[in-house]
TrEMBL record:
Organism: Metarhizium acridum (strain CQMa 102)
Domain Aminotransferase class I/classII large, residue spans: 64-443
Alphabetized UniProt keyword annotations: Aminotransferase, Pyridoxal phosphate, Transferase
Record Gene3D superfamilies: Aspartate Aminotransferase, domain 1, Type I PLP-dependent aspartate aminotransferase-like (Major domain)
The protein, known as: Aminotransferase class I/classII large domain-containing protein
Any Pfam family the entry gives: Aminotran_1_2
InterPro entries the record matches: Aminotransferase_I/II_large (IPR004839), Kynurenine-oxoglutarate_AT (IPR051326), PyrdxlP-dep_Trfase (IPR015424), PyrdxlP-dep_Trfase_major (IPR015421), PyrdxlP-dep_Trfase_small (IPR015422)
GO annotations of cellular component type: mitochondrion
Cofactor(s), by name: pyridoxal 5'-phosphate
CDD domains: AAT_like (cd00609)
Amino acid sequence: MSRTLAQPFLRRLFKPTPSLTLKRFKSTMEGSSKIKPAARVSGQKQDVWSIINEAAAASPKQPIVNMGQGFFGYNPPDFILNAAKDALDRVECNQYSPTKGRPRLKKAIADAYSPFWGRRIDPETEVTITTGANEGMLSAFMAFIEPGDEVIIFEPFFDQYISNIEMPGGKIVYVPMHPPESGATKTSSAADWTIDFAELEKAITPRTKMIVLNTPHNPVGKVYSRDELQKIGDLCVKNEIIILSDEVYDRLYYVPFTRMATLSPEIEKLTITVGSAGKNFYATGWRVGWLMGPANLIKYVSAAHTRICYSSVSPLQEACAVGFEQAESEGFWDKTITDMKSKMDRFNEIWAELDLPYSEPEGGYFVLVNMKKVKVPADYPFPEHVASRPRDFKLAWFLIQEVGVAAIPPTEFYTDANAHLAEDYVRFAVCKDDGVLEEAKRRLRGLKKYMQ
Ligand SMILES: Cc1ncc(COP(=O)(O)O)c(C=O)c1O
C-alpha cells in the first residue's frame, strides 16, 4: 500500500473514541496509570552528573574548566584512529560482528594478556567483547545473579555497579574502604585507604554469589597490593564467590600492579577480569570493552550479552584490535603511564601551594583532595537539592561558582551510612590537555581567600 493511501486507512483504524482519549490523557498526566516507570529508574536522587552540569550552567565563571567526568581531553594515538577510519571503508566492518566479538580483537587481547597470565589465553572461549566495560559487567551480573543473591562491593564504588546488580534482583552488601586517619591534615598515599578484613569476612553470607573489586581504583587511585588481593581471593575461594575484577585502568599504574586472576589457579577459576578499550586507548565514546575468564564463566556472560545488545560496534572493535596488536611496538603502554603520571604530578603541584592534603594516586587518572580547610561561607546560597547533600556536594558547587572548576563529590559513590567518610574530599580527573590543567591550577589559586 502506498504511503498516501495508507495514512487515511491507518488513521481510521486507530482513531480512538473521545472518551478513551480523555481517559488516557488524564491517567498519564496523573502518573497513576500502567505507564508509570519501573522502580529501578524512578525515584532516584538527582544524579551527580546533572547536578554538576546544572552548577556549571549557572556559574558566572564561563567557560568552566571541567575536571569532573573521566573522559579524555585528547584523541587516541594516530595508529588507532587511522585503523578506525580504515575499518569504515571495509564492508564487513560495517555489519554485525559475531556476538562474542570479532575474532581479530579477541585474539589481539588474548595475545596481549597471555604473558601476564603465564599461559596461553584461549581467545575463543576465555575472552568476550562487550559494549564498554559497563555493559560487560551488566552481562556478568545478568549471567549469575538470581533475585536475592548477594554481591559485595567496596565503598567508594563506581556508580554503575549499583543499578547493574539491582537489575537482575541482586542485593548489594557494602564494605567501606577506610580513608587515612590523617587525610584532612597530611598528604598520604592512596595505599592508605584500607579494607578491614574482619569487616569483609563478616559481610559474607551463604547467599554471597559475587564480589566486585576495582584496581586501580576509581576514585581513590589505590592499586591493591598483592597481599590484599591474596586475602580477598582466599576468602572467595573458601566461600566459592565469583570475583568480578574491574581492571579498566590496568595500563595506568605508578606502583607495581597485580592482576587478581594471576594470583593462583584456584583464584583464577573464580575470576572474571573486566577491561575497557575506551580507557586503554583514550576513546571512552567507542564503547568497546571485554571480559576474560574461565570458559565455564565466560560462556554465560556471552549468553547474557547476546540478549542485551547482540553484538558490539564492529569498526571500532577492529580499530581496538590494531591498538592491542601494535601498542607494544609503538611504545604506547609505556607512554600512557609516563604521560598520565606527568599530568598527575603537574596538576597536584597546586595542592602543595594551597597547603591542601590529597591522596597520592598509585594508578588511574583521578585524585582525591581533602578540602576540610576550605571555609564555605555559612550563608552561601546553595540550591535546596545541594544544601541537603553532604559537604562535598556543597564544595563542588562552590568550586564551580567561585573559581569555575568542575570536580566530582565522591559521596555519590557511598551509601548514606558511610558518606561521612568522604564528605571533605573532592575528585579531579587529570586526563586533560596540559593547558587545561594549568588553567585549572590558576583558577584554584582563587581558593586561598577561603582558607584564612
Ligand atoms: C571503575 C570503572 N569501571 C568501569 C568503567 C566503565 O568503563 P567503560 O567506559 O568501558 O564502560 C568506568 C568508567 O568510568 C570506571 O571508572
